[in-house]
Amino acid sequence: MTDFNLDSLSLKELKQLQKDVTKAISSFEDRRKKEALAALEAKAAEMGFSLSDLTTGKGGKISAPKYRNPDDGSQTWTGRGRKPAWFISALERGVSPEDMLIS
């Protein structure tokens, strides 16, 4: 891992670094979730089921998250139902919904 002298960075550089780290963590978590989902889907298929058959009981669809909290990548929202407090707070701070979309 590369060593950084954080004291030599400007505030702008530190904020960009923070944004880059948050994005990297989110990307890492997304990859891990996709790997886990693929493994679960494979196991369910091996046993003659779809994953949605096992998780909903009625074979309905599971909605994928559409928005991610820019301050805490572990918090997501599908865009359905009540808006979570973090989403409302971000909107009040001037963050647009498009900025919180999961790509």
Could you explain the architecture of this structure?
With 103 residues, the chain is mainly alpha-helical. It has two domains: 9-60; 63-103, no CATH class. Helices cover 49% and strands 4% of the residues. It has three helices and two strands; from the N terminus they run ααββα. It has helices spanning 11-46, 51-56, 85-92, and strands at 67-68, 76-77. The protein has a two-stranded antiparallel sheet. Strand 1 and strand 2 form a beta hairpin. The longest helix has 36 residues, at 11-46. It is flat, with a radius of gyration of 18 Å. The mean pLDDT is 88.
Q: Order of helices and strands, N to C?
A: HHEEH
The main pleated sheet reads as: 2 strands, antiparallel
Gross morphology is: flat
Count the helices. How many?
Answer: 3
Domain count: 2
Please report the total strand number as a whole number: 2
What's the alpha carbon Rg, rounded to whole Å? 18 Å
Low-confidence stretches: none
Helix content: 40-55%
Mean pLDDT: 88
**Class by helix and strand content?**
mainly alpha
Taking the alpha carbons of the first and last residues, their distance comes to 27 Å
Report the β-strand fraction as a percent range.
under 5%
Give the strand line-up of the largest sheet.
1-2
List key phrases describing it.
mainly alpha; flat; 103 residues; two-stranded antiparallel ribbon; 2 domains; 4% strand
Compact description:
The protein is mainly α and 103 residues long.
SSE arrangement:
Elements lengths: L10 H36 L4 H6 L10 E2 L7 E2 L7 H8 L11
Antiparallel strand pairs: 1-2
